[in-house]
Write a structure and sequence with these properties.
646 residues, mainly alpha, 3 domains, two-stranded antiparallel sheet, 74% helix, 1% strand
């Protein structure tokens, strides 16, 4: 796992005041911009001016909130961190104030631009080291060094190289560097959804999510595990962060699953896989989903709609396997007295349901910009919460909500600015224009080979890079190659998104699984392999919707409906094969039988000659169900007699 050496400080006195003011300003400025306030002011702003202000407010508090190492005191800020915080303000405010003049002289390498460029790059690298560890920092540093020394490399990797002055100014001031698309999307869209999640917690929306999961699934066999899946799904719709989902939700659900009889490694794997699905579950997905909309220049609602069916198939597979594991282990649901009354849950529920409904309407039906829709949901949440005494937020809780939003943004500011450094370095070196042609050549023009290569590269990159950075890197490097082979653009970008997030549950460096295993006190490797099995659909479905876009709701109504039905049946059969249970335990032959029946239904097209494969899969699946049902019925009397014998 990435070695994150820094813990947040617990400050007091003047340092605490400065920290809090910066975090509050970061939230308020981001919220104002996402709401579109700038369009109603009597003067115009460059977008880069806002990004400069956002960077100043986001970069500076990182050095106040975090320690440079575990040896540094956690209750005060050393002089050098005050200096770094001041440097963060300087590099951001320089752009915020002077960009109208800078914009007309971007190519001029003045001494102050070079100095500030070096400072900005150094601050971003150090900020990332503090919040995400050494590995991520070194990857960016290697990319920057490559730009300088590319003339030393042979073949594809050869380039002329650039001077240190040009590298520093380009990465600092050009729209392809620090102030590129990743930071722009974070500062204008993602901030609204982080704010929305914090607003929901402030009015008790998180308690409602847990209670809904208990009411919906608590009474059924394996109820605690199904509750974990449902609550993590609902939590994921407003968090978009797998690790945060595990930490917040798993602290409750994992001990509950263990008490119900689930082995620790299975409880941890269920929570990790369920939490990771939050990144792909609309309406609020991971940060990379907003980048997809920006790269393709389409409404975010269109991205969310396309991602809906694959996300539902992901959770269908997980729920089926959880149910079958409960049957194998003989686990019952929760006692009736532990399930809250539905009426009392619904009485509080509108603090979550109404804002979410408004958000979905604004994104999908009204076609609002994603940032404005998110801020509308924030406003509705606070208004609805204020209508009931039990959910009405106090002034202190509102201030805490603003501060928590700003604190959550710090990691994203560091990671997205680093993504700008990586992409800017690759663009400046010319590498981004060469790689698509090389990949297409290596694949021999075969889209299947290119997809497999891309999937492998995505997971490998994800071993040390967050999902957002993996997606941005591959969207620039591989996206054009997929387009050259005729892949539908939105399918190609969702493919990259999926495989970027799969690293979080794919050993060896899977952060969501690490977090869940730590809570469950389970063996990491056993948890990791179990998580891969539970999340198996996510490794298959991206190939399917790239080759057959009906699964992302692209095509005729008949093709879409047929694809949905056959894919759902295929996923259920695949889950049976992975779980190894159907009415009774299955041997390896029958597990292979279930997988052989499910894969054609999930993978093959539903038209033309391929329909024969679908029919064969249905026949094999039906035969397996009938055989196992009959076998279980014959075995039942013997089992009952054995249990009743003295």
């Amino acid at each position: 796992m990435t070695d994150v050496i820094v813990k947040y400080r617990a400050l007091g006195g003047p340092a605490r005041v400065v920290e809090r003011v910066l975090l509050l300003l970061l939230t308020l400025v981001g919220a104002a911009w996402a709401s579109g306030v700038q369009h109603h002011l009597p003067w115009a702003f460059f977008n880069e001016q806002y990004l400069g202000l956002f960077l100043a407010l986001g970069l500076s508090p990182i050095f106040l909130c975090t320690r440079a190492s575990s040896r540094v005191p956690h209750d005060r800020v050393p002089w050098y961190d005050w200096a770094l915080a001041a440097g963060g303000l300087l590099v951001g405010l320089y752009v915020a104030v002077l960009y109208p003049r800078i914009a007309y002289q971007l190519g001029v390498l003045t001494w102050e631009r070079v100095a500030l460029g070096v400072l900005a790059v150094g601050l971003v690298l150090e900020a990332v080291r503090r919040v995400a560890g050494w590995a991520l920092m070194w990857i960016a540093a290697v990319c920057i060094l490559y730009v300088k020394f590319a003339w030393l490399f042979p073949g594809l990797l050869y380039a002329k190289g650039s001077s240190w002055e040009r590298i520093a100014v380009y990465l600092y001031l050009d729209s392809g560097g620090i102030f590129g698309l990743p930071l722009a999307v974070t500062a204008s869209i993602v901030v609204a959804y982080i704010f929305f999640g914090q607003a929901l917690y402030t009015v008790g929306g998180d308690k409602f999510l847990t209670d809904v999961a208990v009411v919906a699934m608590g009474r059924y066999r394996g109820g605690p595990a199904k509750m974990a899946v449902v609550s993590s799904t609902l939590y994921g719709t407003v968090s978009g962060s797998a690790v945060a989902n595990v930490v917040v939700d798993g602290a409750i659900t994992i001990p509950m699953m263990k008490r119900a009889g689930y082995p620790p490694h299975l409880a941890a794997a269920i929570e990790a896989v369920a939490s990771n699905g939050g990144q792909i579950m609309p309406p609020v997905m991971g940060a990379a989903a907003f980048l997809i909309a920006e790269y393709l220049d389409i409404p975010y609602g269109q991205v969310a709609l396309a991602a809906l069916v694959p996300a539902l198939l992901y959770y269908l597979s997980l729920l089926v396997q959880v149910d079958l594991e409960a049957a194998r282990l003989g686990l019952a649901g929760l006692p009736r007295e532990q399930i809250p009354p539905l009426r009392s849950v619904l009485r509080r529920g509108w603090v979550f349901v109404v804002p979410l409904a408004v958000l979905v309407y604004a994104l999908m039906a009204a076609g609002w910009e994603a940032g404005r829709a998110g801020m509308l949901a924030v406003g509705v949440t606070l208004v609805v919460g204020a209508l009931q005494k039990a959910t009405r937020p106090t002034w202190d809780r509102l201030v805490d909500m603003l501060e928590a939003t700003g604190r959550t943004m710090l990691d994203l500011v560091a990671i997205t600015t680093l993504a700008g450094l990586v992409i800017g370095s690759l663009q400046l070196s010319g590498f981004t224009s060469k790689l698509p042609m090389v990949l297409t050549s290596l694949a021999g023009g075969n889209v299947y080979v290119l997809l497999v290569l891309t999937a492998i590269v995505s997971i490998l990159l994800g071993l040390s890079l967050p999902t957002t950075v993996v997606y941005v890197t591959l969207a620039v490097l591989v996206g054009p190659a997929l387009a050259q082979l005729g892949v539908l653009p939105i399918a190609a970008h969702l493919f990259l998104f999926y495989f970027g997030m799969l690293s979080l549950i794919t050993p060896p460096d899977c952060l969501a699984t690490y977090a869940a295993a730590a809570i469950a006190k389970s063996d990491f490797w056993k948890t990791g392999w179990t998580g891969m099995r539970l999340g198996i659909v996510a490794y298959i479905v991206p190939f399917v919707f790239v080759l057959h876009p009906a699964l992302i709701l692209w095509g005729t109504l008949e093709a879409i409906v047929t694809a949905l039905v056959t894919a759902a049946i295929g996923v259920i059969l695949l889950a049976i094969g992975c779980a190894g249970y159907l009415f009774r335990p299955l041997g390896w032959f029958k597990r292979a039988w279930a997988v052989a029946a499910g894969l054609p239904l999930l993978v093959l097209p539903t038209h033309g000659a391929w329909a024969a494969g679908e029919i064969a899969g249905l026949a094999l699946g039906l035969a397996l169900v009938l055989v196992e049902r009959a076998g279980a019925a014959r075995a039942l009397p013997a089992v009952s007699a054995a249990r009743s014998a003295p």
